Every structure is written in structure tokens, then in C-alpha cells.
Amino acid sequence: MNADFFKMAKRLKTLREDKELSNAKLADALKQQYGISISKDSLQSYEVSDLNSSKVRDGQLPCSKMNTQYIACISDFYGVSNDYLLGVTDIKDRNQNVREICDSTGLCEWFVKYLFQNVNDIEKMQAWNTFLSPNLDRIMWRLIEMRGIKKHLESDIQRIEKNIGKCDSYTISNSRESINEGYKTFRMAHFEAAEELKEVLRGASAYADLSKKVQDINDKIDEKEGW
Predict the structure, then answer these.
(1) What are 76-115's pLDDT values in tens digits?
(2) Total tally of structural domains belonging to the chain
């Protein structure tokens, strides 16, 4: 898949701000940790996402010129995958297995990571699978619904950000209303999905734990009786 440089520029800025770093401090950190020299001005230009900016040349955002070494180092510094930084995927995790499961199943990143962290033996995994199987269809449909709403909303936001300087007040007002309504719908779907997933996860966890206890006590009885 091709990189989305508009999304990449936005992510570079968001990731830096999340760490509460200035571009100067980021440049120092990258120099100290990876031995690469990127000026604060270059780092600032990589965050430009406005095609009308004076820093844009031939319709290409500055971040499209970033070399592979810089991409690899900056991704590692922020603890995200190269593909996430490049806007190819929305999955931040650097674990290839997590990304592949998210992409193939549509399951959200936190849920897949939760399974990796908590389902750490075969018997428990089988118990989880037994409980989750009959509930998986409705969970999948809920996640697919949320993904569709999110994709549509992000597309609207990107379109408006790129063209806001060319829009009249009437168009901007309508766009604001559309985005706020879309966000309200997404927030409600997210809340309902979260509650539904919590219920299923609590049930799956209790089922798995109880199955393990039953198996353990049976093993002790077998050992006591010499079977």
C-alpha cells in the first residue's frame, strides 16, 4: 500500500505533542539516541499538512521527502510501526502478529493486545475460544460498524482540512454540523461496543478461569486416586 503523507504529517505532529517535546528537543533526542542529525526546522517542515503552505513544493508535502533511516528511527523513538507513521495502517503496535490479526479480523488493537497479554496458555486460549465463538459474530459486526463510521468521519475531516481556506461560511457551517453529528454517532457506537465487549470479556475470563480450576481439581483427584 502507498504512504498517506497527509496522514503522516498529522501523526508526526501528534506523536511529538503527546510526548510534550519541542522540535528542538526532538532533534536533540534523535541525535543522542540514534546518532542522526535532523534540524528542528526540518522536523517542523515534516509536520506541514497544508498543501497551501509555502513549504510545499510541486504539490508534495515535505514529509514525502523523508529518507528511510529517518522514518525507521522516528518510528522506533515513538514506539510505533513504520507503516503507522507512513499512514498505511491505523495499527500502532510494532508487533507484526498483532497487526496481522487486526488487519485480517477487523478486531481493534487494544483487544488483540489484551488477548496476547492475558491468554498465555493453550488451555486458557481454548476456553476463551469456546466462550467467544458464539459471541464473535455480533462483536465483529459491531466493530465493522464502528470502522465504517470512523473511516467516513476521518475522510470528511481530511477533506475539510485540505480545503478550508477555499470554503465559504455556509459550506464551513454545514461541514461543522456534519462532522459533529458523525462524531456523536461514532461516540455512541463506541460506548455501546465497549459495554458489549466488556460483558463478553468478563464472561470469557470467568469461563476460562473456572475451566482451569475444574481441570486442576480433577488432576489432583486423579493423582490422589493414583490414576
Answers:
(1) 999 999 999 999 988 888 888 777 777 766 667 776 776 6
(2) 2
Is it the case that residue 224 has pLDDT exceeding 80?
no
In-domain check, residue 111: no
Considering only the C-alpha atoms of the chain, give the largest distance between any 2 of them, rounded to a whole number of Å. 84
Q: How many CA atoms lie within 13 A of 73 on its CB side?
A: 18
Please report, for the domain that includes residue 11, its CATH number. 1.10.260
Dihedrals phi, psi of 57, to nearest 5 degrees: -120, 130
* CB distance 119 to 101 below 8 Å: no
Verify that 48 and 130 share a domain, yes or no: no
Quote the domain boundaries for residue 128. Answer: 121-225
Judge whether residue 214 has pLDDT over 90: no
Q: Does the predicted TM-score (pTM) go above 0.85?
A: no
DSSP characters over 140-189: HHHHHHHHHHHHHHHHHHHHHHHHGGG--HHHHHHHHHHHHHHHHHHHHH
State the DSSP code for 71.
H
Q: In this structure, is residue 78 part of a structural domain?
A: yes
Structural contact between residues 23 and 43, judged by C-beta atoms closer than 8 angstroms? yes
Closest CA to 11 of 47, 64, 39: 47
- Residue whose C-alpha is closest to residue 131's, from 206, 198, 212: 206
With 0-12 / 13-18 / 19 or more C-beta atoms within 10 angstroms meaning exposed / middle / buried, residue 162 is middle
The residue to which cell 515513538 is assigned: 78
Residues 40 and 133 in one domain: no
Three cell numbers written together for 213: 480450576
